[in-house]
Amino acid sequence: MRTAKVLTYSALALVAGWCGAGDTALPSHPEPATSDLRSETPKSAAELRDRVSRTVAVVVGWSNVRPLRLRVEAIRALAKPLSEDDVQALLWFLDEKFSQQEEYDLLTFNALKNDVLGFLLERPPPPDGIGQSLVRMFRDQKHDAVWQDYCVQYFAVFYQARRRAGATAADRELRAIETAYWDAVAASNSTTAGTALIGLRQLASEFPEMDGRRVAVESLALATNPSAEEGARVTAMQICAEQGETKILPLARALAADGASVMLRLSAVGALGRLGTSEDATLLKSLAAAGEQRIRTAAATALKRMEHRRPGRGM
Q1: Most buried in the list 108, 157, 238, 279, measured by CB within 10 Å?
Q2: Domain ranges, ordered by start, for the chain
Q3: CATH number of the domain at 244-315, please?
Q4: Contact call for residues 202 and 217 (beta carbons, < 8 A)
Q5: How far apart are the first and last CA of the chain?
Q6: What is the Rg, in whole angstroms, of the alpha carbon atoms belonging to the chain?
Q7: What is the per-residue pLDDT across 221-241, written as a single tens digit (0 to 9) for each?
């Protein structure tokens, strides 16, 4: 399949990148029900079926060509520019729910949709309506939780492509994306809160209209919220550390020493490696010397990071 464009936002993936331990996992979560663009849906299949190209018909399942291999090949054969009807048909396919089809398992179905969405966004400018579709699908509780999270992962890809193509910060679709981002952050019982924070942090580093300070504040609030979803807390703690938010250190010390799970402890150890003082080296050395292997490996990595930090940055 076409190389996935989704960003590596799962908490486990972040932990693996920091500490050399763990495997990625697909997120699962409920989402907010409010909407600012819910009414703007793609054209119906009945309106489009007879007007799309043969390649697009194969991609979206409107032909007698059914094998998965041939649908994947059709996605690879897609080329821009597309007609408006072809774009609308692809948007219709992206909005199709897992429960509305019986051919594929969840992973395969979402992989097909991911490749289609990646194609639509891989060369700017993105077609009009993609941002609206992403927001609508994120908010639609009839979509499976994995696809909702994929949509949030693509928010940043769309935002960057549209801004770089000349859209201003006042663009309607971009404003809808920003609103949906903060709604996702507010859903602290979901891994998507962490997904959204990483996308916001990425955009804030490039676009001044994105509030980088708010990202730091929300990350700290999420990391220190004991009722929040664990994966979201892990992600938020790492964002705090990467942004130099030293207010996370008391929590990181406590969790590194005696966290409720390996994921939380790994994230806390990583935060100490980035922000900890020389006094924290004592804790890290004790963790590196004994105990669970993943914690030992992470602590050793954190110690090396501390040793290589510039003078005057917390050591």
Answers
A1: 238
A2: 244-315
A3: 1.25.10
A4: no
A5: 47
A6: 21
A7: 999 999 999 999 999 999 999
